[in-house]
Amino acid sequence: MKIVLVSMNFSPELTGVGKYSGEMAEGLVSRGHEVSVVCAPPYYPSWTVSKGYSASAYSIEQPMPGLTVYRCPVWIPKRLSGLKRLVHLASFALSSAWMVLKLVGWQPQVVFVVAPALFCAPAAWLAARLSGARAWLHIQDFEVDAAFELGLLKQPWMRRLARFGERTLMRRFDSVSTISSRMMRLLGTKGVALQKTELLPNWIDVSCVHATPDSARLRQSLSIEPAQVVCLFSGTLNRKPGLEVLIEAARQLAHDPRVVIVICGNGEMRAPLEALAAGLGNVRFMDLLPAAQLNALLNMADIHLLPQLRGAADLVMPSKLVGMLASGRPVIAAGMPGSEMATVVTGCGLVIEPECADIFAQAIVTLADDPQRRDRLGAAGRQYAERSLDSHAIFNRLDQRLEALCNPYHTPAAPVSGVRLARAVMNSIEPVAIEPVEREIDRAQ
């Protein structure tokens, strides 16, 4: 089967959507499919394009047989804001539309688009219709809801317009998937028919996460004693998790020599967090490690920390949670009662009120005082990961669903026009170059 995967973020990014889209592409190729990926150059979470890539030029890579990666230009803001994020997403949607439509001539059977960024969905849907392919939309994050809940966008008219566009787009796809059952129910409130929805949770290769002595060397590199309790947050350091609460919790635990809080990651909040933690001897910062060292990093933790802001606590299912559970370590997670994350973490750790440093500190002390409870909760998390989050089982199920979506018993999506005409139209379109617009946006704000 020929599959076009449209994902703004992609491998070699180590966190978030890029990590999962990269693993998905490789999983599909290993099952005999041909995959063409349309993505941006790697830039996340540092918001700086990685060495060897360009933010202003198109490029093609073939990292393995059956996988072709088309990199498209994208505008990367130097300073983040709600408006600049929108322009950032729109820049990729604009530059990638040409490439997505160009692939109509490849005659794919499925066009699979990952949101964020939902801005890419119109071109992906059109490409599917032009080629007679099935259109699949995968929701990693309800970006429209999260943007307003977190205050990134505030104007009521923008909310109404964005939600209208979101509903209109989602209802036109042949299949719409998301990463949790609660997010699937939210799809229903947005007008997506139940028979079109699919559960596609984030995953981890449980065979690659296991006990290892390598974590001892990581502890030594951070000047952490073997008897100390390591509380680890690892992931993108952005605004969404409300990471300041970890620094405040560390401040309250400064008198307890047992506890060390390790914050591993990069992103827009790294410098502010380091400034906030100045003078605290129980806080360590470290950069993201290569994927080959993920197992050692996860094993370094005695307790995993998962903060969230109130507004986002029921809109997203943090991707980093799957690694935490697979590591066999307990999780302290901030979440609203009844949220998907709270449901998963209950039995595998402690669920606490979001944005409350006092409660976070108390929960850390509770688990630091009880190693047997830590072992019991961690084992429960590992069992859940093996049962529900193993990448091999999830990719096999995705493979089956893709085959079912395209089998002869489904009424084929009729092409809007012949492939020859579509190819001729696409060949006449010139690619879009992305020019810096930072100063203009600053003036607009």
Plain-language structure description:
- With 445 residues, the chain is an alpha/beta fold.
- The protein has two domains: 2-203 and 390-444, Rossmann fold (3-Layer(aba) Sandwich); 206-388, Rossmann fold, CATH 3.40.50.
- 42% of the residues lie in helices and 16% in strands.
- The chain contains 17 helices and 14 strands.
- The protein has helices at 16-30, 82-102, 121-131, 143-149, 156-172, 181-189, 214-221, 244-252, 270-276, 294-300, 321-326, 340-345, 357-368, 371-388, 391-406, 419-427, 438-444, and strands at 2-6, 34-39, 59-64, 67-71, 110-115, 134-139, 175-178, 197-199, 229-234, 259-264, 283-286, 303-306, 331-334, 349-352.
- The strands form two sheets. Strands 3-4-2-1-5-6-7-8 form an eight-stranded mixed β-sheet. Strands 11-10-9-12-13-14 form a six-stranded parallel β-sheet.
- Helix 2 (82-102) runs parallel beside helix 3, helix 7 (214-221) packs across helix 10 and helix 8 packs across helix 13 (357-368).
- The protein is globular and about 65 Å long.
- The protein starts with a strand and ends with a helix.
- Residues 410-414, 416-430 and 432-445 have low confidence and may be disordered.
Write down the Rg.
Answer: 22 Å
CATH class of the largest domain reads: Alpha Beta
Helix content: 40-55%
Q: For the residues shown, what is the average pLDDT?
A: 87
Shape: globular
CATH topology of the largest domain: Rossmann fold
- How large is the count of helical segments? 17
- Assembly type of the shown chains? single chain
Overall number of structural domains:
2
- Could you give me the name of the CATH homologous superfamily of the largest domain? Glycogen Phosphorylase B
Strand order of the main beta sheet, please?
Answer: 3-4-2-1-5-6-7-8
Class inferred from helices and paired strands = alpha/beta
Biggest sheet features: 8 strands, mixed
Instruction: Please state roughly what percent of the residues sit in beta strands, choosing from under 5%, 5-15%, 15-25%, 25-35%, 35-45% or over 45%.
Output: 15-25%
What's the end-to-end separation, in Å? 47 Å
Q: What CATH architecture of the largest domain would you give?
A: 3-Layer(aba) Sandwich
Unreliable residue stretches = 410-414, 416-430, 432-445
The number of distinct β-strands equals 14
